[in-house]
Structures are given as C-alpha cells and as structure tokens.
Write a structure and sequence with these properties.
- The chain is an alpha+beta fold.
- It has one domain.
- About 25% of the residues lie in helices and about 35% in strands.
- The chain contains 3 helices and 7 strands.
- A 5-stranded antiparallel β-sheet has the order 6-5-4-3-7. The protein has a two-stranded antiparallel sheet with strand order 1-2.
- Mean pLDDT is about 80; it is low at about 1-15.
C-alpha cells in the first residue's frame, strides 16, 4: 500500500477531534491547500494558525493566519517555503491553544515621531567633536 493510500488517523487526546492526515494533508487532488497547524521555522520560531498557499507575482508563499489571542490581534504572515522546518497538522482546538501559549506577535508599526527623534539623537552624537 502506497503512502497516499494509507489513511492514517492521529488522535491528539481524548477530548480533541481526530485528525485524518490523509484528508487534510496528503490528498493531492484538493484544489485549495488549507489546514490548521503548528509551523516550525528555522531559527527556533513556532507559529500556530490556519495555513494556506498564496501566490504573489510569480512567487509562491506559505500563508499563516494567526488567530486573535488574549495578548495580540489576529494577523497574517507570508513565509518563504524555504524558511519552514516543519508543518504539523493539528485540530482547530489544539491550534487555538498553541497560538495562545506561543504569543507570537505581528510586526510592530513604526511610530514616525519616535524614529525621527532617534535619528536626530544619532546625528547629534556623531557631531560631537573629538
């Protein structure tokens, strides 16, 4: 029996849903790739969310939609597939719990006033005579 014919089921605990790996991960006939997962990136970073594929121009990226948690708003991150070490399919319940525990934050927006003040301070330091 080949890998794609083996319909293994992984149980993630007595209270969680069973996850049919074949249906959610190995079925190459699906039009849209989408699953809830914990994604491991090179550099020891992990993220939990809904994983899909997104094409931007002629490049293909892995898209992770991280859910809102108690400490962060929901956000989306596009990753180069070469930056990914592993994609671990999990149930939605497990993904939500992992997202809460990981506390991965989105990129913080720059406050132009703060950035301007830092640049001015740097310029003043460089102008000090030696």
């Amino acid at each position: 029996m080949g890998l794609l014919q083996n319909q293994s089921t992984i149980s993630l605990g007595k209270d969680s849903e069973d996850l049919d790996i074949h249906k959610h991960f190995f079925d190459m006939t699906e039009q849209k790739f989408e699953l809830t997962a914990v994604v491991e990136l090179f550099g020891h970073t992990r993220m939990a969310g809904t994983v899909t594929e997104q094409v931007v121009g002629d490049a293909s990226f892995i898209r992770i939609d991280v859910p809102e948690t108690k400490v962060q708003p929901k956000f989306t991150r596009l990753l180069n597939p070469k930056a990914i070490y592993a994609i671990n399919p999990v149930t939605k319940k497990v993904m939500l719990e992992m997202a809460q525990q990981m506390e991965v934050t989105p990129i913080e927006s720059w406050d132009i006033r703060t950035m301007h003040e830092k640049l001015l301070a740097l310029n003043e330091c460089e102008e000090v005579p030696t």
